[in-house]
């Protein structure tokens, strides 16, 4: 599928069937697609009707699997809130602002290294390298381990991409790993690594994310089990790296394709906070999350039955012409910009949203003044996935300012 195909498809669905039933090709369970901004927001905020407890991707899991693989993403209600609050203070805008000086220095070092070459892969040298080093600092893991974290994220989240996956999601071999997140054997490596870190931090006085997980009891009084910790740590490794790197890459691609917008940001750096919101809308790094109806309900004239899978296509909502004027136009001055790249006010609103915004703002504040020109030096290669909107390789050629 080319980069433009999903946007055309979503536009047609919003026009003709905004709440659309998708039957499974093999006659199994189908799912509803929500493609309008208003419907997506309504469902995202209504956890009582559209639960995450039955899992947030389209894979079918039985009750036993769900119990083994359940992370904070697949919880609602008090337990979800208790686990979220374990680390929520570390991700408030005020807390992440304390990383600004570190981020400036990290960005400068990343760019100094990448821009020694006239041509390089933007993903490998900048987009992937940058956020993983932020995560490494928050987890307090050695700098030398960042490549392992990147590799694990690739192998786990891109489980339908033969370039990354150890075992492809729909292969017969994946049944051997059905109890692991994303059916990925790489999850076992992440679990082992996290457990080793936890053992060293337990009982200590550290303030890193792992120390807080193992030494700070949840507000509901129910301690984290080993399985709870495994799944929480894996979620941090994957979510803390994958989405920001894809958003940064898509933003750079958009600026290459729209040099007038890059020039506006060079001329007026004060536009950058608003530009970051357009970067996020344009990138939509996570295509969708799934919910499951807990009762019969009606949405957009469609009768949704209890137990039906309901997919919230955030990427489609971010191009909804009822919310965004000329939605297929990339505009760094767009205002208002009510995008839903992080969700929209629901209980599962992205915990790392403030950090991702700060990372992206500093990256482009530092990068754009260094460049007289940047252009594609080859065809970008996309991650083969209907879950993450990712670019795995983007060769660029640069001329320094």
Automatic annotation (TrEMBL):
Source organism superkingdom: Bacteria
InterPro entries from the UniProt entry: Cyt_P450, Cyt_P450_B, Cyt_P450_sf
GO molecular function terms noted in the UniProt entry: cholest-4-en-3-one 26-monooxygenase activity; heme binding; iron ion binding; steroid hydroxylase activity
Pfam families: p450 (PF00067)
Record keywords: Heme, Iron, Metal-binding, Monooxygenase, Oxidoreductase
Record GO biological process: cholesterol catabolic process
Family membership: Belongs to the cytochrome P450 family.
Matching PANTHER family: BIOTIN BIOSYNTHESIS CYTOCHROME P450, P450, PUTATIVE (EUROFUNG)-RELATED
Designated name of the protein: Cytochrome P450
Natural source organism: Actinomadura decatromicini
């Amino acid at each position: 599928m080319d980069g433009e195909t999903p946007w055309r498809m979503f536009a047609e669905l919003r026009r003709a069937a905004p709440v659309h039933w998708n039957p499974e090709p093999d006659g199994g369970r189908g799912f509803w697609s929500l493609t309008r901004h208003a419907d997506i927001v309504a469902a995202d905020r209504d956890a009582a009707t559209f639960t995450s407890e039955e899992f947030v991707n389209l894979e079918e899991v039985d009750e036993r699997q769900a119990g083994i693989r359940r992370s904070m993403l697949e919880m609602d209600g008090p337990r979800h809130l208790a686990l979220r609050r374990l680390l929520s203070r570390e991700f408030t805008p005020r807390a992440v602002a304390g990383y600004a000086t570190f981020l400036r220095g990290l960005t400068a070092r990343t760019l100094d290294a990448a821009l020694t070459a006239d041509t390089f892969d933007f993903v490998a040298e900048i987009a992937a390298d940058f956020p993983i080093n932020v995560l490494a600092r928050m987890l307090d893991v050695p700098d030398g381990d960042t490549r392992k974290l990147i590799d694990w994220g690739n192998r786990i989240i891109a489980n339908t991409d033969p370039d990354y996956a150890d075992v492809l999601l729909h292969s017969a071999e994946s049944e051997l790993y059905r109890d692991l997140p994303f059916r990925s054997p790489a999850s076992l490596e992440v679990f082992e690594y996290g457990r080793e870190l936890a053992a060293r931090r337990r009982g200590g006085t550290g303030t890193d994310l792992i120390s807080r997980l193992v030494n700070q009891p949840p507000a509901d009084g129910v301690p984290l089990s080993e399985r709870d910790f495994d799944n929480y740590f894996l979620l941090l490794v994957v979510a803390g790296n994958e989405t920001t790197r894809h958003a940064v890459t898509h933003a750079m691609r958009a600026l290459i394709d729209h040099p007038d917008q890059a020039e506006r940001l060079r001329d007026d750096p004060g536009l950058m906070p608003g530009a970051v919101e357009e970067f996020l809308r344009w990138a939509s790094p996570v295509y969708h999350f799934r919910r499951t109806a807990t009762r019969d309900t009606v949405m957009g004239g469609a009768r949704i039955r209890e137990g039906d899978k309901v997919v919230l296509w955030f990427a489609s909502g971010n191009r909804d012409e009822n919310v965004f004027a000329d939605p297929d136009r990339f505009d760094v001055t767009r205002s208002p910009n009510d995008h839903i790249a992080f969700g929209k006010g629901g209980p599962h609103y992205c915990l790392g949203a403030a950090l991702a915004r700060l990372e992206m703002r500093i990256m482009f504040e530092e990068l754009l003044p260094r460049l007289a020109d940047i252009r594609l030096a080859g065809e970008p290669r996309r991650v083969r996935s209907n879950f993450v909107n990712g670019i795995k390789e983007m060769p660029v050629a640069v001329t320094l300012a």
